[in-house]
Design a protein that fits this description.
The chain is of the alpha+beta class. The protein has a single domain, classed as q2cbj1_9rhob like domain (Jelly Rolls), CATH 2.60.120.620. It is built from seven helices and twelve strands.
């Protein structure tokens, strides 16, 4: 999940500084066993967090947003296209800022089934840090190389959680998320030979000395709660089925960004408080932040990773 997609300049409907969350009847918090799994392994998978009707509403919103963007003649304000055509047509690989762009995704992002669990992990005062929709269209779906989210957006502490909601059944064949468990306590190197931020882990993870990747398959509506320093990636989608994933990043309100380029100032304008209150002080903790050397602004994750690999 990269910081860069927050840099898109698309206009969004003005929002209040604080957004109400929706609390759902029934169990919406983690069990003690799930919390322990998150602390140890760096992630928790919650199958079928959202029902079929909610998933279909999100899919329909994606179709409407995509049609409108492509018809506007200025789609780059809303979405990013796959570099290679599918059956002769250009298809989107990412929609920018869905939380800000549409009420459907604001409602999901402020839903108690997500926020109650985030509160279990980082406390009661929460901000939505960023959002995006990765499309992984059938037959192409761009690869995402190994990286750690917090390497893109360093903060004063590591109480940030990424939530990925599968909007299609996710399998190994269509490029589900894969993680490297128990490596959420330190950063891997993300710099190229010149010391510039590459957008991907440049250490050798294929040797097996850091453990074996774990693919996280799940039915549509499932959600993955992932620590912001946990290494993760996804393979290309070569199957005939899409694998759309809605992604939110949340942070404790006392986790403040560390300035490293002008991008940080612009990005903070898009952050929203979704529960509790803002903090007058910044809390420091976690692994020493990795500061990306990116120049004046950070490019798309896909563009940076592609450039780093010389493609």
């Amino acid at each position: 999940m990269s910081y860069s997609q927050g840099m898109n300049t698309a206009t969004a409907t003005p929002l209040p500084a604080t957004l109400p969350s929706v609390r759902i009847a029934g169990r919406t918090h983690f069990t003690p066993e799930e919390r322990a799994h998150y602390r140890t392994e760096g992630f928790v998978v919650v199958p079928n967090l959202f029902n079929a009707e909610e998933v279909e509403q999100a899919r329909q919103t994606i179709r409407e947003m995509t049609r409108a963007a492509l018809a506007s003649g200025d789609h780059a304000k809303v979405l990013e296209l796959e570099p290679e055509p599918v059956d002769g047509e250009r298809v989107p690989r990412r929609i920018y800022d869905p939380f800000l762009a549409h009420e459907t995704f604001r409602a999901l992002g402020a839903d108690g089934r997500i926020l109650d669990r985030i509160e279990d992990l980082v406390g009661p005062d929460l901000c939505c840090n960023l959002s995006k929709l990765n499309m992984k269209p059938a037959k192409v779906g761009s690869v995402v190389d190994w990286h750690q989210d917090l390497s893109y957006y360093p903060h004063t502490n590591a109480d940030l959680v990424t939530v990925l909601v599968y909007l299609d059944d996710a399998t190994i064949e269509n490029g589900c998320l894969q993680v490297l468990p128990r490596h959420q306590h330190a950063f891997f190197n993300h710099a190229d030979a010149q010391g510039n931020f590459a957008g991907l882990i440049t250490e050798d993870l294929d040797s097996g000395r850091f453990g074996k990747p774990v693919p996280l398959e799940g039915p549509a509506g499932s959600a993955i709660f992932m620590h912001c320093v946990l290494p993760h990636s996804s393979l290309p989608n070569r199957s005939p089925k899409a694998r759309r994933t809605l992604i939110y990043s949340y942070r404790a309100a006392d986790a403040y960004p560390i300035y490293y380029s002008e991008s940080v100032v612009n990005f903070e304008k898009r952050v929203r408080l979704v529960r509790g209150k803002l903090s007058d002080t910044a809390r420091f903790g976690g692994p020493p932040p990795l500061i990306p050397r990116v120049g004046t602004e950070m490019k798309s994750l896909y563009e940076m990773q592609r450039a780093a690999k010389g493609k």
